[in-house]
Structures are given as C-alpha cells and as structure tokens.
C-alpha cells in the first residue's frame, strides 16, 4: 500500500519530467526549423511584392524563384487539401498551392459553417482552412490560390484571411477562384452567383487577385465547341470596372479556338491575365500552347497544366526563344536528324530563325553537305548560313543542281 502511493508519486514525477522534455524537444525543434526556414529561404524583401494584392510574378521574382516575369516559369500544386496532400505540397518545389474550400457538412444536417479543405463531392476533411493557412503561412513562401465551388464558403474564408492579414501574416499574393458564369457545353446552371461572389470579395478581402471563371465541359465529339464572344463579354461586364488584378482561368483544350475572344479580353486591361488549366484527360497540344504564347505577352499567361511533360516541352522550346529569337546550330552536330530539329525550332515561333554555321576546322564540306542540304530544303527564308566562302559556293552549286 505504502509502496503504491510512493511509487505512484514517483511515476507522476517521471511522467512530468518526461512530458516536460518532450515539450522542450518539440519547442527546440520548432525554433530550429523556423530558423532553418529563414536561413534557407531568402525572405520576401521588396515590400510591394510581398502583399496579398501583389502580382504573382513580381512576388516570385522578388524571392528569386523565377528569373523573369514569365507565367511559363510558375509551377503549381493541385488539390493540396488533406493534411497529407498539404504536407506533400509543402515539401514540393511547386511555387503556388491550389486548394479547394468548402463548408464542413455542406447542405446536410451536419453543416457547421466551418471552411474545410475538400473538393466536391467531399464535404468533410481532416484539414480546416484555418489549419491550412496556419501551416502554409508558417512553413512556406508559396503563393496561395483558393478555389470555391460554393458561395457559402466564401464569406467565412475571407474573414479568416482578413484576420491573418491584419496580423501581418499574409505577405504573399492570394488568388480567389470561383466559376461565376456558365461556359461552353454546360447544360445546367451550377456556377457560383457572380454578383454575390464579387460583392463578398469587395467587402471582405479586396486585396485578393480575382480568378473568375466559366463552368466548362469538354466534349471530345465536338472539339470545336468553345467559349463564345458573348461569354467573354459578359465576364468583362462583371469585372471591367473592379480595381483588383484579375486572372481568368481558361480550359486550355478550348483556348485556341476561342483565341480572338481571349485576345480581345487581355486587351481590355493591364490588370488581366489568363491561367490555362487542363482537365485530367484533355488532349492539349504543345502546338496550341505555343500559339497562345506567340500571341500574348509572357507575363499575361500562366500554365497550370495536368501533364508535366507538356510544361517541360514548352519550357524547352521557349528557353531557346527567350534568348535571341535566332537559333545557332552547328552543321556538324546536326547529324541525321537535321530536318526534324530545324522544323521543330521553326515551328516554335513564326519569329524564329535558324543560323547554321560551320568551321572548316570541324570537317570538310562533304562532312556537312547532307545536313546543309536538308536545312535548305526545309525553308528558304528563315534559315541563314555562316560558312567559309568555298563551302557557300559548293552549297549554292549543289542546291542549283538539285
Ligand atoms: C451527420 O453526422 C453523423 C454523425 O457523424 C452521421 O452519422 C450522418 O451520416 C451525417 N449525416 C449526413 C447527412 O451526412
Ligand atoms: C445572384 O444573387 C443576386 C442577389 O441575391 C440575385 O438578385 C440574382 O438573381 C442572382 N443571380 C443569379 C444568376 O442567380
Ligand atoms: C462544329 O463542327 C460541326 C461539324 O463540323 C459543325 O456542325 C458545328 O456547327 C461546329 N460548331 C461550332 C460551334 O462551330
């Protein structure tokens, strides 16, 4: 009996010491990770670029994450909703996190009014918006894009953002997305009420960049059905007079066919950009994306694409195009595939030119004859030659013969 009492008090003591150490170690870990975070990530230093209403490209450039104001350089993480997904997103290289907000138990008897991170049809989540924001703001510098499928979630979410912003904690751009107009191939009205959505943002969180979109359905049977001029003009009517930056989410697979409308829209304000997005099974081609890129400024379009390879191909082609628009190729290195390489470069942009060069030190005319002739056969106006005079004469003679 005596022992029982003494032992239990000893146990209590050890338990107390034990939990105190756990708390200490945890606190130490938190401080350390915070310090490391500060060390490894240069803070956002240009004040104007570190605000919720800042331009995303300015922000990422001020962090040194992108080298120039080009939407193609921005990388995205999708549906970073559950604790697990959020953790993966936070430890990824993605520059901007996209996540979906709904109300816990939406439209059931269990509805609580608490914004949680879930994509419809899910209405429950192990992650509330508050937890999400706390984690993302504390442990990353990633940009934030919140997607709302229901108007009910907008008010309470903006109130949370308001509080955190007033505490000085939201030092990065925040995008607020909702589909507010009916778009291509959608037979029924499922969009978020536009006037109410826009009013909520103006009243509660005017700092946000608006991302107002159209509901869409892609029907492979009718690939030509796309956004109409009326849809695009209606959007301009809604947001044309607002003060915020606006980025319009556009389904990439349908953008080319509607390009005249989106080109018109981009021309309506300096505040506008497009965010091209891809449905999981949408057949988006590099060709379509290059078309958009060639017909817009690089800061006007973001590429939030499902297939990573698509973005890699775009980057590869455009990396060359950022520098001089003229490609310098060494004839001796072109090998068997001259026509393919040259065609690809010329197709990358109507502005692209190719200069094929060769030095006699790298081999005689015969060694590059096939490559030069292949290039010449591809195009006569956009391919130039930097060759020793005798090689040039030989090439002209060969071309004349063929
Ligand atoms: C509400 O919550 C209860 C308890 O968690 C659950 O059993 C019930 O299925 C929920 N009702 C609806 C409509 O989701
Ligand atoms: C959106 O909400 C407003 C205000 O409640 C209402 O007047 C309007 O009819 C709604 N618009 C649509 C398209 O339902
Ligand atoms: C799409 O193509 C089909 C078949 O060519 C044509 O009948 C239809 O009118 C086109 N639709 C649009 C919106 O251009």
UniProtKB/TrEMBL annotation:
It holds the Pfam family Menorin_N. The keyword Ligase does not apply. InterPro entries: Menorin_dom. It is found in: Membrane. Keywords: Membrane, Transmembrane, Transmembrane helix. One of its GO terms (cellular component) is membrane. Residues 70-309, 311-391 form the Menorin-like domain. The chain crosses the membrane at residues 14-36. It is a single-pass membrane protein. It comes from the Eukaryota. Its main location: membrane. Belongs to the menorin family. This is Protein FAM151A. It comes from Panthera tigris altaica (Siberian tiger). The lineage of its organism: Eukaryota, Metazoa, Chordata, Craniata, Vertebrata. The gene is FAM151A.
């Amino acid at each position: 009996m005596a022992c029982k009492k003494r032992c239990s008090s000893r146990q209590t003591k050890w338990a107390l010491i034990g939990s105190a150490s756990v708390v200490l170690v945890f606190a130490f870990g938190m401080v350390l990770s915070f310090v490391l975070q500060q060390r490894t990530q240069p803070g956002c230093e240009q004040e104007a670029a570190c605000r919720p209403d800042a331009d995303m490209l300015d922000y990422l450039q001020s962090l040194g994450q992108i080298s120039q104001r080009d939407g193609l350089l921005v990388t995205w993480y999708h549906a970073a909703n559950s604790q697990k997904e959020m953790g993966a997103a936070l430890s990824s290289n993605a520059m901007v996190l996209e996540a979906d907000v709904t109300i816990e138990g939406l439209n059931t008897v269990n509805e609580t009014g608490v914004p949680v991170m879930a994509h419809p049809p899910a209405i429950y989540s192990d992650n509330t918006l508050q937890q999400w924001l706390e984690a993302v703001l504390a442990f990353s510098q990633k940009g934030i894009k919140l997607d709302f499928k229901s108007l009910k979630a907008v008010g309470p979410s903006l109130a949370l953002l308001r509080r955190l912003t007033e505490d000085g904690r939201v030092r990065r751009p925040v995008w607020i997305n909702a589909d507010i107009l009916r778009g291509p191939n959608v037979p029924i009205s499922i969009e978020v009420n536009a006037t109410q959505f826009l009013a909520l943002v103006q009243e509660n969180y005017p700092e946000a960049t608006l991302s107002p979109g159209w509901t869409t359905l892609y029907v492979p049977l009718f690939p030509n059905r796309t956004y109409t001029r009326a849809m695009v003009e209606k959007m301009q009517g809604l947001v044309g007079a607002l003060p915020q930056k606006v980025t319009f989410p556009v389904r990439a697979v349908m953008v080319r066919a509607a390009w005249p409308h989106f080109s018109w829209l981009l021309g309506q304000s300096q505040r506008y950009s497009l965010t091209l997005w891809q449905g999981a099974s949408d057949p988006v081609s590099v060709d379509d994306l290059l078309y958009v890129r060639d017909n817009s400024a690089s800061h006007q379009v973001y590429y939030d694409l499902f297939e990573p390879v698509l973005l890699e191909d775009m980057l590869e082609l455009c990396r060359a195009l950022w520098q001089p628009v003229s490609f310098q190729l060494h004839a001796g290195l072109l090998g068997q595939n001259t026509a393919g390489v040259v065609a690809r470069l010329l197709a990358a942009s109507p502005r692209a030119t190719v200069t094929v060069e060769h030095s006699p030190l790298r081999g005689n005319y015969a060694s590059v004859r096939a490559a030069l002739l292949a290039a010449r056969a591809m195009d006569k106006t956009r391919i130039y030659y930097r060759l020793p005079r005798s090689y040039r004469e030989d090439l002209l003679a060969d071309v004349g013969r063929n």
